[in-house]
Amino acid sequence: MIFNGGPVIFSGRAHTALAQSICDYLECDLGNAEFSKFNNDNTFVQILENVRHRDVFIIQPTSPPVNDNIMEMLIFIDAARRASAGRITAVMPYYSYARTDKKDQPRVPITGRLIADLIGTAGADRVILMDLHAAQVQGFFSTVVDELTALPLLTDYFINSDMSLEDLVVVAPDIGSSRRSRMFASRLNVPLAIIEKRRLGNNDRVETLNVIGNVEGKYALLFDDEINTGSTMISAANILADHGCKGVYACATHAVLPGDASQKLTAVPNLIELVVTDSMPLDESKRHPKIKVVPTAPLIGEAIKRINEGQSVGALFR
Which of 102, 103, 197, 246 is catalytic? Predict the structure, then answer.
């Protein structure tokens, strides 16, 4: 399909700073749209420029307030469809309901699938996601999905830092994150260790059981796709200290950090640094000298450019 002009980038209200950074990378202007809420709490979105037959990209991670941001994205997609956009791509660097990816208890929903269905029904032709918590969520969408990974950005951060990789070991904080952690370790050319853990119920309490691999006398780099309350990372840092680890670096694509999670994490004595991306906004109240934020605009911007020009997105990660 031939579209009028290059990509048109819009932003919902979830993370306008990221959308502007993507536009800066692409050397284009951020599209104009108006948002408001009626006195009955209904969300209103109006696109303020012509998008007929244009290639439209809507930037909106589903960060807190999650449900408001999802609803705003759905309404924005519908507005673009009714304005005769040529193609609509929902760009959600953080997809919050990816954790609810299976029916693991009686009478519970699979919300990751439900939200995917709603995005397709609203009118999205394509979706850009990044480092999903569960890979099978890609299959929940009826639309085309491009899943990006921040792995190259994060590994480059450590390669280009002043830290020595000679005494470093990448540690997967649980069995589920071992595949990504193995890829991380391979890119850094360092060993891998795995922490065995058990989650207790639905309240984010974690019991750590064992460390598989040698961490004594080394610096550990904990890697996961998402840091939520930080209980997994805190538990892992404590057991690594018990096993003779000299210090801990923590790293994740998505930094949710609700409540006082940021303060609890940065207060861990052996935590040297927490490295995350800007896939979702990080409030000033959660920032700390130990927390470093890696920009994702070059990665997402390049993916948008390639999609618009009909080039391979997968080639970015070869």
Answer: 197
